[in-house]
Specification:
With 259 residues, the protein is α/β, with parallel strands linked by helices. The protein is built from nine helices and ten strands. Strand 2, helix 5 and strand 3 form a beta-alpha-beta unit. The longest helix is centred in the first third of the chain and has 17 residues. The chain is globular.
Length: 259
């Protein structure tokens, strides 16, 4: 994908989440079934980096479960981060940083992050990388182009402990007739089908106004190829969420032993 096209798609999504932050947050006040399944498998002592944390519903659930280990949530939307911080106010082991995952230097914000002075010497203080678990629920599919996918996964490798896990989900909207009806022509944003990659779609939004956002539909084959290219191996794959139980493709990755 041409860099100029990728930049345009990123700007489209940035404008979408800036405009519809409140309406989007209102639709994300409960965790998906697949996310709940993942939470059941997380050790209570695991340090967690949550990419695309949104309004912090995952952090709130962890806090409700008594999670005492470090959690750092990243998102590019200041409006959603404000909601996330408010939701775990009083829990010193939870922190949030505004970061754009499409920025090639976003990992620097994680490496340079400092815990607040009052908890820096506490056992629950946010540590520097590596993290035991890196999560990316419904986040990667908003990043356009193979180059950015590779860049992001390479950065995740540098933030993950040797025995850690990278766990992510990707929206399988093509499995829903209702969601397929939300696909709009690229001409609506001044692009053509030939400008974007296979699996790229433009979906509309109709809650609290009309908007458009970019989404990439990942297949198992594409994820397998990306994992191999970035020296990960896939530990587990499952589908969950939605009425048919197949609107989310979940995978657990670990670092290749020989990498």
């Amino acid at each position: 994908m041409d860099n100029a096209i990728a930049t345009k798609l990123l700007a489209l999504n940035s404008q979408f989440y800036q405009t519809f932050a409140d309406q989007f947050s209102a639709t994300r006040m409960r965790l998906q079934t697949g996310v709940g399944r993942i939470l059941e498998s997380l050790p209570p002592e695991a340090s967690i980096l949550d990419l695309g944390c949104g309004n912090g519903e995952l952090a709130r659930e962890l806090a409700r479960r008594g999670h005492r280990s470090p959690y750092l949530g990243l998102d590019f939307s200041p409006e959603l981060l404000d909601v996330a911080r408010e939701g775990v106010a009083g829990h010193a082991n939870f922190a949030f940083v505004q970061v754009d995952l499409a920025d090639p230097d976003w990992g620097d914000s994680v490496f340079s992050f400092q815990s607040p002075p009052d908890i820096r010497h506490s056992s629950s203080a946010i540590r520097h990388p590596p993290f035991d678990v890196v999560l990316a629920f419904a986040a990667l599919h908003h990043l356009p182009g193979r180059a950015i996918h590779y860049q992001t996964l390479t950065k995740i490798r540098s933030l993950l402990a040797p025995e850690g896990r990278f766990i992510h989900s990707n929206w399988q909207f093509l499995n829903s007739e209702r969601l397929r009806s939300r696909i709009q022509p690229w001409e609506d944003v001044g692009l053509a089908d030939t400008d974007v990659d296979p699996g790229d779609y433009l979906l509309d939004w109709r809650r609290g106004g009309y908007g458009l956002r970019y989404v990439h539909h990942f297949s198992e084959a594409e994820l397998s190829s990306l994992a191999e290219e970035t020296s990960f191996e896939i530990v587990e794959t499952f589908y969950s969420d939605g009425e048919g139980g197949n609107l989310g493709l979940y995978q657990v990755w670990r670092l290749m032993i020989d990498s």
